[in-house]
Each structure stands twice: as structure tokens, then as C-alpha cells.
Amino acid sequence: PVPVAQSSMEQVQHEAERGGYRLIDGESLWKLYETDRDNILLVDVRQEWEHRAGHIVGSLHFSLEPTWWARWQKKRALEHLLGPDKDKILVFY
Predict the structure, then answer these.
(1) 30 to each of 23, 26, 35, 37, how far by Cα in Å?
(2) 3-state SS class at 86
(3) Which residues contact 23 (CB under 8 A, 6 or more apart)?
(4) Which listed residue, of 41, 80, 89, 92, carries a Cα 20 to 30 Å from 32's Cα?
(5) What are the start-end ranges of the H helices in 1-93?
(6) Is 59 left (phi over 0), alpha (psi -120 to 50) or beta?
(7) Using an 8 Å Cβ cutoff, are 83 and 21 in contact?
(8) pTM exceeds cut of 0.90
């Protein structure tokens, strides 16, 4: 059997590729954050209590359950949060 974490990561990679997105690792994100912070929009999708416990400075909070139904239900709210600037690098964590 495939471990759940591996299966979930494979699903994330597949969905990202299907949508034309690129995944980066933590080290690459840190380099971007240090050199081009103004061009990055960080979105914390964890639960409210997790966000209150600690988050990346400058990030926006948008609690999102990891299901297609939750994403579909909050689509308009997420579009509003992200705004019209399509040139920014979006990072969801």
C-alpha cells in the first residue's frame, strides 16, 4: 500500500502540473523571500488556531480545507483575496 502522505503529495503534484503551476521547496522559497519579497503573495491556508499560533510575517490568512469541494465553495472569496495582480508569485502553505 502507498503511505497516505506520499499519496497526498503525488496528488498535489499532479494537480499542480494539470493547472500549470510549479511547486518549489522550502529552500527555494526562502531565497525568493529574501530577494524578491515584494513580488510574493504568501497565503496561509491552515486553520485559524494554527495561524494564531504562528505564521510567516506578511502572509495573508485564508483557511481552506484540502478538498475540491472546499476549494470550489471558497473560489470567489479566494479570487477576491488574491486580487487582480496576476504577476505575483503565489505561495500557499
Answers:
(1) 14, 6, 9, 10
(2) coil
(3) 12, 13, 16
(4) 80
(5) 4-19, 26-35, 48-53, 68-73, 75-82
(6) beta
(7) no
(8) no
pLDDT tens, residue by residue, 44-87 = 999 999 999 999 888 999 988 777 787 788 888 988 888 888 78
SS3 at position 61:
strand
C-alpha cell at 43: 497565503
C-alpha to C-alpha distance for 89 and 2, rounded to whole angstroms: 32
> In the structure grid, which three cell numbers stand for residue 55, read together?
505564521
